[in-house]
Write a structure and sequence with these properties.
Helix 2 (47-56) links the parallel strand 2 and strand 3 (62-70). The protein contains five helices and nine strands. Strands 4-3-2-5-6-7 form a six-stranded mixed beta sheet. Strands 1-9-8 form a three-stranded antiparallel beta sheet. It has a single domain (8-218), classed as 3-Layer(aba) Sandwich (Rossmann fold), CATH 3.40.50.2020. Helices cover 26% and strands 24% of the residues. The structure holds inosinic acid and magnesium ion. Magnesium ion binds at residues 45, 160.
């Protein structure tokens, strides 16, 4: 009997993902030590990545969720993106990392960055598990990348095809049986986290010295030894 998983070619194993998520979380914990970090995750694709990422952070953080729908017909691309930034908390002056499952054309990120920058945030970087740089249509700086992949349609670990496959613990390429699947696995890269600089966002509200000192005092008690 044919199943949903018949045309899935494994691209990144569960172990490879977990190793890389630990590396990403370690780097973010160092970069944001003593800062007031807010992670904003793009639903639905980023939900499993976020859950693993936050459990590997050694610094405090807050989490918010936003929903993005890019009107796709299956694997077809469309540049129409609708973002629901229904964030109740005040994000003015916050240090933000957007957490994404995959960056493809870049339109979703570009739209979200625009929305956030209008709210006077302090800084914004992007952390994505997967990046398809060859599919980019609009500039979108991504600071923390788990894996760079070729321009294939990826599913699993939160990513879907028509709402299916999100529950796979690994990343697979969705394709008809293809003899070059092994070659594509070799094209998966783990780029240097700092290879692209985050766009600075003009600060509109800067916390007072006193507020910062108090935050650092609280956070230094929280931090666990690695
Ligand atoms: P972008 O706006 O083209 O960068 O696309 C971002 C969104 O499209 C992601 O958040 C995913 O929901 C979806 N997407 C893009 N490429 C893939 C893929 O290979 N597999 C699954 N979803 C994808
Ligand atoms: Mg989708």
């Amino acid at each position: 009997m044919e199943t949903l998983f018949d045309n899935c070619r494994p691209l990144i194993t569960s172990e490879e993902i977990q190793d890389r998520v630990r590396e990403l979380a370690g780097r973010i914990s160092d970069d944001y030590y003593g800062k007031d970090l807010l992670l904003i995750v793009l639903l639905k694709g980023g939900f499993i990545f976020l859950a693993d990422l936050v459990r590997n952070l050694t610094i405090p953080c807050e989490v918010e969720f936003v929903t993005a729908s890019s009107y796709r017909d299956g694997v077809q691309r469309s540049i129409e993106v609708e973002i629901d930034v229904n964030i109740k908390s005040n994000i003015t002056g916050r240090e933000i990392i957007i957490v994404e499952g995959i960056v493809d054309t870049g339109h979703t990120l570009a739209n979200l960055m625009r929305e956030l920058s209008e709210r006077g945030i302090q800084s914004c970087r992007v952390c994505t598990l997967l990046d398809k740089p060859s599919a980019r249509q609009i500039k979108a700086d991504v600071h923390y990348v788990g894996f760079e992949i070729p321009d294939v349609f990826a599913v699993g670990y939160g990513l879907d095809f028509m709402e299916q496959y999100r529950n796979l613990s690994y990343i697979a390429e969705l394709s008809p049986a293809s003899p070059d699947a092994t070659i594509r696995r070799e094209l998966v890269k783990r780029p240097d986290f700092a290879s692209t600089a985050a766009e600075p966002v003009e600060p509109s509200v800067i916390p007072s010295e006193g507020e910062l000192a108090e935050k650092h005092r609280r956070q230094s008690r929280f931090r666990m030894d690695k």
